[in-house]
Structures are given as structure tokens and as C-alpha cells.
């Protein structure tokens, strides 16, 4: 979460300086700078995600050295999930806090022709971004570990796409539907990246017995759970 906040601080500084050096009366230019600031923010977030991966790799090596069996007690997949979730939670909290501040007044959404679905749509968008950051974290860490640079490019591109779609608001159908489709597809991708399979999902749903172990939701990620 701290790494995400630092990336946002740097992006905000870049945007602020750009605005101060530009013609503030030119509405089209200011909108372009806003789009530019969002793109810079995405790129910085992914850069800091990579920096956090390198930091965790160093920490993982240290934990492995002091481990009894020469292995780290925390797996890379666990660190990727926690990192992505942290990025998502702080991103969601930061983006939705302004919406909550607007909700207490003094104006009322919809009274001047604004969409009455502003708050509920913002909530769904925030939820999607939290999930996306979690999925991106899993995919990003795996791609860095296996040096799959095309996966890194897809993560950055999908992040840019998700942020760019929000500029279509208040045309919510054009932004919310594609973002949730992207969330679903990215979720499937991260599931298989983490070691999941359709076979394990079917076993999980059927509550099939395998020896002394009961197949639970953990089996979807190939983690056995004893009775």
C-alpha cells in the first residue's frame, strides 16, 4: 500500500507541474493533461509493483537462508496475492473516499440532470479495480519470476485500458461492462497462473473424496486441506 501511495504522489506531482506550466484557460489542454496524468499514474504504479517484487525477492532470499529446510516460509504466489490485494485495497479506498465525501452534500446527485446511478456505479468500479489489482499482482509476479515479458506488457496494457475506460463516464454502460469483462478474463488468467484448473474446480464443487483428504476450495489452487 505504501508503494502504491508513493507512485500516486509522484504522478500527482508530475500532473500538478504540467498544469502549472500550461495554459489553465484551455479546457481541451487541461483534459489532455488529465488523461496524461492518469497514464503516468498507471505506468508508475506498475514500475513500483516491479520494485516491490525485487524487494520481496531479496527478502525471500534472506528468509530462505535462515529457514531450517533452506526454503522461505512464504511462497511467491502468496506474496503476489498479498501485494496485489494491498494495491487494490489502497487504490479502492483512495478513489472512493472522494465519492463518499460528495455523498454528504450539500448537493444531490441527479438534481441537475446528473445520473442517479453515480454512487452505485462508482462502487462497482471500485470493486472491479480492487479485484483487478489482485489479479494483476499474481500475473505480474509470475511473469517477472519466469521472465515472460509479454505477460508484463499485457498487464500494463490492461491497466491502461481499465483506467482509460473510466474517462467514458458518465456513459456508464460503456465503461462498466468492458471493465467487468476485463476483470473476469483477468481473474481466469490469474487463476490458471496460480496453478488452478477446471478439473480441480469440478472436484471442489462435487465435494469428491480423495483418500484421507476432502477436496475443498483450496484444491482449486492445488492446496490440500485435511479434515
From TrEMBL:
GO CC terms: gamma-secretase complex
Domain of life, per lineage: Eukaryota
GO BP terms in the entry: Notch signaling pathway; protein processing
UniProt subcellular location: Membrane
Membrane topology note: Multi-pass membrane protein
Family: Belongs to the APH-1 family.
Function, as annotated: Potential subunit of the gamma-secretase complex, an endoprotease complex that catalyzes the intramembrane cleavage of integral proteins such as Notch receptors.
Protein name: Gamma-secretase subunit APH-1
UniProt organism field: Sula dactylatra (Masked booby)
